[in-house]
Amino acid sequence: MAAAIDPSMNEALLARLRFYRDLGLTEFYRRPVDPSLIASAVEPTSEILQENEPIPSRKPIPAPPAITTQIKPADKAAALRLIQDDIGECTRCALHAGRHTIVFADGSPNARLMFVGEGPGADEDAQGLPFVGRAGQLLNNMITAMGLKREEVYIANVVKCRPPGNRTPEPEEANTCSPFLFRQIDVVQPEVIVALGATAATYLLGQRQPLAGLRGRVHSFRGTKLIVTYHPAFLLRDPRQKKEAWADLQIAMRELGLKLPSRE
Ligand code: SF4
Q1: Residues 16 and 134 in one domain
Q2: Ligand 1 centroid vs 216 CA: distance in angstroms?
Q3: Domain residues for 20?
Q4: Ligand 1 pocket residue status of 102, Cβ below 6 Å
Q5: In this structure, are 32 and 80 located in the same domain?
Q6: What pLDDT does residue 183 have?
Q7: What pLDDT does 172 receive?
Q8: CA of 53 to the centre of ligand 1 (A)
Q9: Orientation angle between helical segments 198-205 and 171-188, nearest 10 degrees
Q10: Which residues pair with 196 in a beta bridge?
């Protein structure tokens, strides 16, 4: 038998839904958890392994519906704050136990370009902002090379709490947290998303493939152009791949209509 709903809870939920509706947010979803991802007991644990090792293909996760709701630019900051409110002092997955700070995002709610990484590291956990450590410095350089400023783009991660020892988030953790990221994307509605590394690519594309097979072309995340490249932390370990990453960023620049560097 279904449990009775507390009337005060019911009223609070209705008030929250009305608030969302007034902001133009009418669609909510959770991407279904792929049991085969959760069942994967052995996951690559380092960024280097993730980027280079072949990952067996698995059953694709059903794609969420295409974005149909348009949010006015003036309302986007408020809509993002609502998502942050919903996260609250989140304990929805095991990662809450070791975090100091929930790292929500950084950048402009009206950005045309969004970067998505894997999860916070130690510096990010301490400061509450994504990509502020050494990898963040490299990302800043990449953004500058594109002719943009960090404050013009939007930066977020698949998980918002630091995995212990900077390990890769477990599928259950990423599947629990990623709906918040998807809602951030729905609000910002960037023209182009750049997935930084294998974890971001896996959860945005809903499929696991070696990064090498995903780079160098334009994918789609719910109708938004998605480009996959290496995570800056990987580029710090293997700077030889910076040239490849720059080629990926130039695809993003082309899609955004940004001026490309002249060929020598
Ligand atoms: Fe909540 Fe995401 Fe942190 Fe897990 S990682 S506790 S789902 S905010």
Answers
A1: no
A2: 31
A3: 9-41
A4: yes
A5: no
A6: 96
A7: 96
A8: 27
A9: 70
A10: 229
**pLDDT value of residue 25:** 55
Q: Is 96 in the pocket of ligand 1 (CB under 6 A)?
A: yes
Q: CA-CA distance, 47 to 50, in Å (whole number)?
A: 5
Same domain, 135 and 184: yes
Do residues 145 and 22 both lie within one domain?
no
100 vs 50, which has greater pLDDT? 100
Place of tokens 């130690």: 122
Beta carbons within 8 Å of 210's beta carbon, 6+ residues apart: 52, 53, 54, 55, 198
The strands making up 113-117's β-sheet, listed across from edge to edge, are 106-107, 154-157, 113-117, 192-196, 224-229, 218-221
- The domain total for the chain is 2
For ligand 1, is residue 178 a contact (CB within 6 Å)? no
pLDDT at 163 over 60: yes
**Protein residue whose Cα sits closest to atom 7 of ligand 1:** 177
Least Cα distance to 115 among 185, 166, 210, 177 occurs for: 185
Structure confidence by residue, pLDDT tens digits, 181-206? 999 999 999 999 999 999 999 999 99
DSSP 46-102: SHHHHHHS-----PPPPPPPPP-----GGGHHHHHHHHHHHHSS--SSGGGGG-SS-
Q: How far is the CA of 139 from the centre of ligand 1 (A)?
A: 23
Helix or strand run (H / E) with residue 159: none
Looking at residue 70, its pLDDT comes to 78
